[in-house]
Amino acid sequence: MNFCVLDKVNVALSDMIIKFTFTVILALSQVPFCLMLPRDPLDKPNIIILVADDMGYGDLSSYGHPTQESGPIDRMALEGMRFTQWYSPESVCTPSRGATLTGRLPVRVGLYGPYERVFIPHMPTGLPKNEITIAEALKDVGYATGMNGKWHLGINEFRFDDGNHLPAHHGFDEVGTIAPFTHHARCDEEKKIVSSPEKSYCFFYSNDTIIQQPAAHHNITKTLVYETKAFIYNHENDPFFYMLNFLHLHDSLFAGPEFQASSKRGEYGDNLNEMSWAVGEVLDTLRKLEIEKNTLVLFVSDHGGHIEICSDGGKNSPFRGSKETTWEGGFRVPAIAWWPSMIEGATVSRDIVSSLDILAPPWI
Ligand SMILES: *[C@@H]1O[C@H](CO)[C@@H](O)[C@H](O)[C@H]1NC(C)=O
Ligand SMILES: *[C@@H]1O[C@H](CO)[C@@H](O)[C@H](O)[C@H]1NC(C)=O
Question: Which of 22, 58, 235, 316 stands the most exposed, by the fewest C-beta atoms within 10 Å?
Answer without folding.
Answer: 22
